[in-house]
Automatic annotation (TrEMBL):
Keywords: Lyase, Pyridoxal phosphate
Record's GO cellular component terms: cytosol
Molecular function per GO: L-allo-threonine aldolase activity
Family that this chain belongs to: Belongs to the threonine aldolase family.
Cofactors: pyridoxal 5'-phosphate
Modified residues (N6-(pyridoxal phosphate)lysine): 202
Segments forming domain Aromatic amino acid beta-eliminating lyase/threonine aldolase: 8-284
Protein name per UniProt: L-threonine aldolase
Classification via Pfam families: Beta_elim_lyase
InterPro entries: ArAA_b-elim_lyase/Thr_aldolase (IPR001597), Low_specificity_L-TA-like (IPR023603), PyrdxlP-dep_Trfase (IPR015424), PyrdxlP-dep_Trfase_major (IPR015421), PyrdxlP-dep_Trfase_small (IPR015422)
GO terms of biological process kind: glycine biosynthetic process; L-threonine catabolic process
UniProt superkingdom: Bacteria
Keyword Lyase tagged: yes
Length: 334
């Protein structure tokens, strides 16, 4: 069966900068961000810090680098850190948490309770006990199908971590999606975190860029570590300008969420095992993931394997009409 253009639901990272974004990039005011500061970078960093509820923020080329910088600052070599099972820092960053930040990863439940977290942290123990110094949270939780953590659940986990003397890093690659799903400002979901990472290159559609934020001292150190990792860039305003346009599109994510629900409902009608999506990620259980993905690709519907399931991610470059089209195509082969 031959098809029209593929409907690309592999990730919200496939979103392309549109004309308005490219025009903003072309017109950006720039300076040397390594020497002193690029004015558009500064504007983006200040805007994101305010949105996310931290004192300061630093632009980084990728979410992985943002997470890594935070881990490098929070961890000493050999420190144990905790993160929900399936977290990006555990399984999707090539082991850099251990390789470069020196951390000993220990997975929690995908959605840990405060009691489970407390038990995992454990008591202080004698001097030869491994030191547990960091909790990493992820909101939304990508591997758990874009699951949202409510602010009171977040607060309880942070309280347990703080009580035990841990620092908290929040991987908020899709914090915007969580905020839109809950109808809350992003800053309501970061309370108590020592550092936060947010992506502009996912559903918000920027070609590149994340920010890592926290206290002024944290960001000063993060700037040094970014330079160590080769992430210091010169006239970054060209990229920051795309980020500012991306930030103006947070409300549009509601459409992606509606599209994800429509996709999940359609697949459920076809008899697929699908949990109702909380945001823009649909995880579908199938008997054979690779076989299912190959069949889908033949009709021009692209997904990826994740958590032993087929993952579809809705995004701004796929319309509600294309979701209906995708369902028609899937129905034809299923
Ligand atoms: C995409 C993503 C990141 C960072 O990804 P990059 O590709 O490095 O920008 C981090 N955490 C989560 C949960 C993500 O989905």
């Amino acid at each position: 069966m031959t098809t029209a253009a593929a409907i690309d639901l592999r990730s919200d990272t496939v979103t392309r900068p549109d004309e308005r974004m490219r025009a903003a990039m072309a017109a950006a005011e720039v300076g040397d961000d390594v020497l002193d500061h690029d004015p558009t970078m500064r504007e983006l960093e200040e805007t994101v810090a305010e949105r996310v509820g931290v004192d300061a923020a630093l632009w980084v080329p990728s979410g992985s680098m943002g997470n890594l910088i935070a881990l490098m600052i929070h961890l000493r070599r050999g420190d144990r850190f905790l993160a929900p099972r399936g977290a990006h820092v555990l399984g999707a960053e090539l082991g850099t948490a251990a390789w470069l930040a020196g951390g000993m990863p220990d997975p929690l439940a995908a959605k840990p309770t405060p009691q489970e977290l407390s038990a995992a942290i454990g008591g202080k123990g004698p001097y030869y006990t491994m030191r547990t110094s960091l909790l990493v949270l992820e909101n939304t939780h990508n591997g758990a199908g874009g699951a949202v953590t409510q602010p009171d659940d977040h607060a309880k986990l942070v309280a347990v971590a703080k009580e035990a003397g841990l620092t908290v890093h929040l991987d908020g690659a899709r914090l915007w999606n969580a905020a839109v799903a809950l109808g809350l400002p992003p800053a309501a979901l970061t309370v108590g975190a020592d550092s936060v990472q947010v992506c502009l290159s996912k559903g918000l559609g920027a070609p590149v860029g994340s920010l890592v934020g926290g206290s002024v001292e944290f960001v000063a150190e993060a700037r040094r570590v970014r330079k160590m990792l080769g992430g210091g860039i010169r006239q970054g305003g060209v990229l920051a300008a795309a980020g500012l346009v991306a930030l103006s599109r947070i409300d549009d994510l509601a459409q992606d969420h509606a599209n994800a629900r429509a996709l999940a409902e359609g697949l459920t009608e076809f008899g697929w095992q699908v949990d109702p999506p909380e945001t823009n990620i649909v995880l579908a259980g199938v008997p054979d993931v690779e076989f299912a993905l190959a069949g889908l690709a033949r009709v021009g519907v692209l997904g990826t394997p994740m958590s032993g399931k087929v993952r579809f991610v809705t995004h701004r470059d796929v319309s509600a009409e294309q979701i209906r089209d995708a369902l028609t195509r899937i129905h034809a082969v299923h």
